[in-house]
Write a structure and sequence with these properties.
Blueprint: E1 7-9, H1 18-26, E2 32-33, H2 39-42, E3 45-50, H3 54-63, H4 67-75, E4 80-84, H5 85-88, E5 93-94, E6 109-112, E7 122-126, E8 129-130, E9 147-151, E10 153-154, H6 163-166, E11 167-173, E12 176-184, E13 187-190, H7 198-210, E14 235-244, E15 250-253, H8 276-286, E16 290-295, H9 308-319, E17 324-327, E18 333-334, E19 341-342, H10 344-354, E20 358-361, H11 363-378, H12 388-396, E21 401-405, E22 407-412, E23 424-425, E24 436-443, E25 448-453, H13 454-464, E26 468-471, H14 485-494, E27 499-501, H15 508-518, E28 522-525, H16 527-530, H17 536-545
Parallel strand pairs: 1-2, 1-3, 3-4, 4-13, 5-6, 14-16, 14-28, 16-17, 17-20, 20-21, 21-26, 26-27, 27-28
Antiparallel strand pairs: 6-10, 7-9, 8-11, 11-12, 12-13, 14-15, 18-19, 22-24, 23-24, 24-25
Length: 554
């Protein structure tokens, strides 16, 4: 009887590798972590995932003494699969870390995606177009399937030089075409995350695990960049507000303008719309492109390592293969015994190791932005590397940091009434007929207003290193009256990072309307999905009928 293959995982401390392990196990296989140099000799196949910065990945490999063993493994002809930064380090170098050489397995350099013409990071579901016919059966990829991308740097696809020997698929993002997978001899690598790409991604991963993907060295004719068509979809995100009810059980709830009790004046129970993992699994199966958990219970009376949300993530990542975001409590935390202090970057790291792909920062983002602008006013450099946003982005990458904004309208009769804030004309006049407003940011779940507006917040946080904006609106929350178009359009114009529209959706037309009017990158809803008032499939069908590209579920 043939011995089972020894599949190994090369983890340099990249963050969420739990989802990859879960994906491998979902396919019926087991995978072992590489802990020592000697493990390279034991491996039949290696999967090398990565997120974050190119330089951090290469330095981590060098510090562990893994560079030479990895190159020797590749030279032996045994199969290797790189994912995201695990693909990028296989090239000669990156503009992200110019002084840090790559492994040089593939010819070319990784370059920054141009943010002057489009949103960066490239975040969402896009196609991977197979660019040439091979004599060897390739990975199970291509066609109309979509894969999850999240990156700010990429290898330009030119169809020139040695790219004929190793480019397997290319992807268009706006006015640029990038290499989305490479395949040369025994090395296969993807820029997208197969473990986060649903059934399509699992098929690509299964190809590597169960086939001998060794490409011949023949040159093949490959497609010109101009022939690669745009295929990025708009994301539909399901959001679950999670908190403990009065009996201590974790439930999914939903507020009406942030009030989560059935009858707050009478001290009613917390609205219970279901169990977090069960609902999240349902949304994955119904076609949600991402799932966001917002933890609205502090759990101050227990050590952070015992926080129930960590177990929610562990359970969810076993059965959900799209991106997971966790928000709430991403800050410096001291355990109740006063002995163990968790810096925010370590809190984020624990969330990533438990299965999250992104962390959402709320109140601390406001405080960081206030400090940023105070430093500007004081004439000192506005960034100093001490904020949670900066530290998490530095270690895990810009794409891992979402800022969650909870603003409300403050009406004024003219812009001169609020000279220190960004005032816009509003399509929703105030109670005294005011035609202008500014959007005031709040902290502590909307309970405390701050003297900073949304424009000031998002521009500061982008400068600090945030990779995405989750844009709520307290005035719209729970109203089912549609998104706050004025706010979304103004914020989209203010930053180059992706923006998610949240709060107010009540019917399918609201989703297409906000995309058409603002070109927002993603749309999010909660209560209408929980109560099945508007199914996710209906939202996607309606958007597709109105010419808005969406991902279909295999």
């Amino acid at each position: 009887m043939e011995a089972p293959q020894k599949l190994y995982l090369l983890d340099y401390g990249a963050g969420n590798v739990r989802s990859l392990v879960n994906a491998v196990e979902k396919l019926g296989h087991t995978i072992t972590h590489i802990d020592t140099v000697e493990d390279f000799a034991r491996a039949d196949k290696i999967i090398f995932p990565g997120v974050g910065a190119f330089g951090y990945a290469m330095q981590a490999l060098r510090n562990k003494g893994f560079v030479e063993p990895l190159l020797a493994y590749i030279a032996s002809g045994r199969p290797l699969m790189g994912i995201c930064v695990g693909m990028q380090v296989l090239f000669e170098g990156s503009d992200e870390s110019p002084d840090e050489p790559g492994l040089g397995v593939f010819e070319g350099r990784v370059e920054r995606i141009d943010s002057s013409t489009k949103t960066v990071p490239h975040m969402g579901w896009n196609a991977a177009h197979v660019v040439g016919a091979h004599t060897t059966q390739g990975p199970d990829m291509g066609g109309d399937r979509r894969y999850y991308f999240v990156h700010s740097y990429a290898v330009p696809y030119t169809a020139c030089g040695r790219q004929q020997k190793f480019v397997h698929t290319a992807t268009r993002y706006g006015d640029e075409v990038v290499v989305s997978s490479a395949w040369q001899k025994n090395v296969f690598a993807t820029q997208f995350h197969p473990e986060k790409s649903g059934a399509a991604g699992l098929s690509a991963l299964q190809s590597f695990i169960e086939r001998d993907l060794v490409r011949s060295s023949d040159l093949v004719e490959i497609s010109a960049p101009a022939t690669i068509e745009a295929a990025l979809t708009k994301r539909v995100i399901a959001c679950l507000d999670v908190r403990a009810n009065d009996q201590g059980d974790l439930v999914v709830t939903k507020g009406d303008q942030y009030d989560v009790r059935e009858n707050s004046e009478a001290g009613g129970d917390v609205r219970n719309l279901g169990k977090p993992v069960d609902l999240a699994k349902r949304y994955f199966e119904e076609g949600a492109d991402e799932i966001t958990f917002l933890n609205i219970t502090s759990f101050r009376n227990m050590p952070f390592a015992d926080t129930p949300m960590l177990d929610v993530l562990r359970q969810a990542s076993r059965c959900i293969f799209v991106p997971l975001t966790i928000g709430g409590g991403v800050r410096d935390i001291t355990d109740p015994d006063g002995q163990h202090v968790w810096p925010a970057v370590e809190v984020a790291g624990e969330y990533f190791r438990s299965g999250a792909d992104k962390v959402s920062i709320g109140s601390d983002a406001v405080y960081a932005a206030e400090t940023y602008w105070q430093r500007v006013a004081d004439g000192v450099p506005p960034t100093d590397g001490t904020t949670a946003i900066e530290q998490i982005a530095s270690r895990y990458g810009q794409q891992a940091v979402v800022i969650s904004v909870d603003p409300r309208r403050v009406y004024v009769r003219s812009p001169s009434d609020a000279p220190s804030h960004h005032v816009i004309a509003t399509s929703t006049p105030g109670p005294q007929g005011e035609a202008f407003c500014w959007y005031q940011c709040t902290v502590k779940g909307g309970r405390e207003p701050r003297d900073i507006d949304v424009r000031q917040l998002v521009t500061a946080c982008e400068a600090l290193g945030a990779g995405e904006v989750l844009l709520n609106c307290m005035d719209r929350d729970g109203t089912n009256s549609g998104y706050e178009t004025d706010l979304v359009a103004d914020t989209k114009a203010a930053v180059t990072i992706p923006v998610i529209a949240s709060s107010g959706a009540g019917r399918v037309e609201h989703f297409s309307d906000i995309v058409d009017r603002t070109d927002v990158d993603a749309v999010l809803a909660a209560g209408i999905f929980h109560r099945r008032e508007v199914p996710i499939a209906d939202v996607k069908r309606h958007m597709a009928e109105h010419g808005i590209p969406t991902r279909t579920v295999e």
